[in-house]
C-alpha cells in the first residue's frame, strides 16, 4: 500500500468519525456564519508571467510531512502566515491533516484571521463534508487531488467548493488525469512535482505539462521548489504560481528565505 493509499484510508475513517461528532447540517450553519471568502483565484490571476507579470507565491504553512518528517519544531502557524504575507506571498496554504502532517483545522482558522490574503485548506478532500469544515473555519480555497478521486467525484467536489464560494485548486501528478481535471471545470490547476507514491521530485514535471494546460487556466507548480533558479525556470516557462512549503518553513528566518526564493 502506498503512503497516498494509507492517507486516503485514514482520511475515510476520520470523516466517518467527524460526521458522528458534528452533523453536516450543523457544519453548514457554521459555514454560513464564517467570514466571507477572499478571492484566491483573483490573487493569482493578475499580471500573469505570460504577460510580463511576476510569478506568484502560494506559501505553505507546513510543520511535518511523510517525506521529510518533522520540518519545524518551533511551529507558530500565525507567525509564519504573517511573515509570508509581509514578504509578498499572494496566498497561503495551510496543512490541516493531523496524522501525517501534524496540521490542524484550527491553524487555518487562526492564521487566516491574522492575515489579509486568501488561505487554502491543504488536505486530502474526499467528501463534501470536508468542504463544509473548510469553509466553517474560513478557507478561501481547497485542494482537490485527481489521484484520490474518480472523475465524477472530482467534478462534484469542484462544483460544491465553488457553490460555497471557494476556489478549488485541482492537482494532478499523472498526466493521464489531465482530461478529468479539465472536465471538472478547474480554472486553477496544480501539477505536483512530487510523485505521491514514491516521493521522487522532478521540477521538469510541471515544465513538461505546461504546454498541455490551456492558456485560459492558471497553472501552479507544486513541491520541490527550493532556489531562485527553480523559480526562474518555472516563470520563464509561463507557470503562473508556485506552491512552496518545506524549503521555507525549514529555515530559521522564514522572511529572508521568501525574499531569497523570489529574488527580492
Ligand atoms: O510533502 C509530502 O511529503 C507529501 C507526501 C504525501 C502526500 C502529499 C505530500 N505533500 C503535499 C504537497 O503537495 C506539498 O506539501 C506542497 O506541494 C509543498 O511541497 P514542498 O515545497 O516540497 O514542501
Automatic annotation (TrEMBL):
Enzymatic reactions: 1-(2-carboxyphenylamino)-1-deoxy-D-ribulose 5-phosphate + H(+) = (1S,2R)-1-C-(indol-3-yl)glycerol 3-phosphate + CO2 + H2O
EC number(s) reported in the record: 4.1.1.48
Q: Which residues form the Indole-3-glycerol phosphate synthase domain?
A: 4-261
Q: Which domain of life is it from?
A: Bacteria
MF (Gene Ontology): indole-3-glycerol-phosphate synthase activity; phosphoribosylanthranilate isomerase activity
Can you supply a Gene Ontology BP term from the record? L-tryptophan biosynthetic process
Which keywords belong to this entry? Amino-acid biosynthesis, Aromatic amino acid biosynthesis, Decarboxylase, Lyase, Tryptophan biosynthesis
Please verify whether the record's keywords include Isomerase. Answer: no
Look at the named UniProt entry and state the broad enzyme category this protein falls under: lyase
Q: In which pathway does it act?
A: Amino-acid biosynthesis; L-tryptophan biosynthesis; L-tryptophan from chorismate: step 4/5
Specify whether Lyase is a keyword of the entry.
yes
Q: Which protein family is named in the record?
A: Belongs to the TrpC family.
User: What protein name applies here?
Assistant: Indole-3-glycerol phosphate synthase
Q: Which organism is it from?
A: Pseudobythopirellula maris
Amino acid at each position: 500500500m502506498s503512503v497516498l493509499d494509507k492517507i486516503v484510508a485514514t482520511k475515510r475513517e476520520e470523516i466517518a468519525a467527524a460526521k458522528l461528532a458534528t452533523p453536516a447540517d450543523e457544519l453548514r450553519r457554521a459555514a454560513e456564519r464564517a467570514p466571507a471568502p477572499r478571492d484566491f483565484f483573483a490573487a493569482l490571476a493578475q499580471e500573469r508571467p505570460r504577460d510580463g507579470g511576476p510569478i506568484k507565491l502560494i506559501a505553505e504553512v507546513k510543520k511535518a510531512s511523510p517525506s521529510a518528517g518533522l520540518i519545524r519544531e518551533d511551529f507558530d502557524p500565525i507567525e509564519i502566515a504573517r511573515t509570508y504575507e509581509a514578504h509578498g506571498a499572494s496566498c497561503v496554504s495551510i496543512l490541516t491533516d493531523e496524522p501525517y502532517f501534524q496540521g490542524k483545522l484550527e491553524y487555518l482558522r487562526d492564521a487566516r484571521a491574522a492575515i489579509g490574503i486568501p488561505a487554502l485548506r491543504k488536505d486530502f478532500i474526499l467528501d463534501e463534508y470536508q468542504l463544509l469544515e473548510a469553509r466553517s473555519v474560513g478557507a478561501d480555497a481547497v485542494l482537490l487531488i485527481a489521484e484520490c478521486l474518480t472523475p465524477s467525484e472530482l467534478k462534484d467536489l469542484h462544483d460544491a467548493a465553488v457553490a460555497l464560494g471557494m476556489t478549488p485548486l485541482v492537482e494532478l501528478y499523472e498526466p493521464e488525469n489531465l482530461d478529468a481535471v479539465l472536465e471538472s471545470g478547474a480554472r486553477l490547476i496544480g501539477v505536483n512535482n512530487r510523485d505521491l507514491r514514491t516521493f521522487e521530485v522532478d521540477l521538469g514535471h510541471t515544465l513538461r505539462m505546461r504546454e498541455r494546460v490551456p492558456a485560459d487556466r492558471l497553472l501552479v507548480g507544486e513541491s520541490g521548489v527550493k532556489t531562485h533558479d527553480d523559480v526562474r525556470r518555472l516563470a520563464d516557462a509561463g507557470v503562473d504560481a508556485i506552491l512552496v512549503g518545506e524549503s521555507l518553513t525549514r529555515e530559521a528566518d522564514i522572511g529572508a528565505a521568501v525574499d531569497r526564493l523570489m529574488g527580492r
